[in-house]
């Protein structure tokens, strides 16, 4: 089935939905990182640490509950958030060091 015209209509419809969701996720992540960049600037100005373990712990618990309510594997949701948190901390450290 290398020819797109051979793909069943239902499969094409589902793939189109997935493509739209992926695009929305990318835009949401971009917006989230714009906000976290501002947080990083504020932290750097006030000489606050890049990481906030207590907040991270609360966010992970919150996201796990949201994932569970949505029918998404909470372990996956936590792994995803941990990846994002690590990237945010990295950005905050770079901002604090004057690298951004």
Terminal CA distance: 47 Å
The residue fraction in helices comes out at: over 70%
Order of helices and strands: HHH
Number of strands: 0
Could you report the average pLDDT, rounded to the nearest whole number?
94
- Structural class designation: mainly alpha
* Separate helix tally: 3
Write down the oligomeric state. Answer: single chain
Question: How much of the sequence is in beta strands?
Answer: under 5%
Cα-atom radius of gyration = 18 Å
Low-confidence stretches: none
Q: Choose one word for the global shape.
A: elongated
Largest sheet: none
Question: What can you see in these coordinates?
Answer:
It contains 3 helices and no strands. It has 100 residues and is mostly helical. Helix 1 packs parallel to helix 3 and helix 2 packs antiparallel against helix 3 (74-96). The longest helix is centred in the N-terminal third of the chain and has 37 residues, at 9-45. It is elongated and about 60 Å long.
